[in-house]
Amino acid sequence: MIVVVKFSGVDFKIKLLTTAGKRLKLTIWDTGSVYDVTRRETFTRLSKTWVKELERCCTDPDCIKILVGNKVDRENERAVTMEEGMALAQEHECLFFECSAKTQANVKQCFKDLTLKILDVPSLLEKGSTPVNVKNQILKQKHVGDNGNCCS
């Protein structure tokens, strides 16, 4: 389940996951860090405006940031290289993924890696959470269906 609340320029999402018999609730501030790998202007605009949005919305120094390139199912139309996306993500200390909303390639992996990263940061967890057991179970799960275009 995903719950979405729209703010000016930012979507607030709550994604509920069940893994290793535990329910996890991810609180996600979507500041528009998704670009279309087939349209260079989306990447250019993102690299100019996204950083300002992050500075305005992200006041927690432990916040996990993700940059996502979408539409990898249209590889023959690619206008932004994976290396360019990785460089921008690295510059801003973000996780990086390339996904396809259409085919769902790497979408689950993106959430899995985000969850693992959150479990590594105690200040992001609610009191009483037991991240070690959940993290170990997530790591043991075999992931099927992604095409391997993931970088983090």
TrEMBL record:
Membrane topology, from the record: Lipid-anchor
Keywords: GTP-binding, Nucleotide-binding
One Gene Ontology term of the molecular function aspect: GTPase activity
Domain of life: Eukaryota
Keyword GTP-binding recorded: yes
A Pfam family per the record: Ras
Signal found in the keyword field: no
Cell compartments where the protein resides: Endomembrane system
Main location group: membrane
Single GO cellular component term: endomembrane system
InterPro entries the UniProt entry points to: P-loop_NTPase, Rab, Small_GTPase
Signal sequence interval, chain numbering: none
Protein family per UniProt: Belongs to the small GTPase superfamily. Rab family.
Name of this protein: Ras-related protein Rab-18
Higher taxonomy: Eukaryota, Viridiplantae, Streptophyta, Embryophyta, Tracheophyta
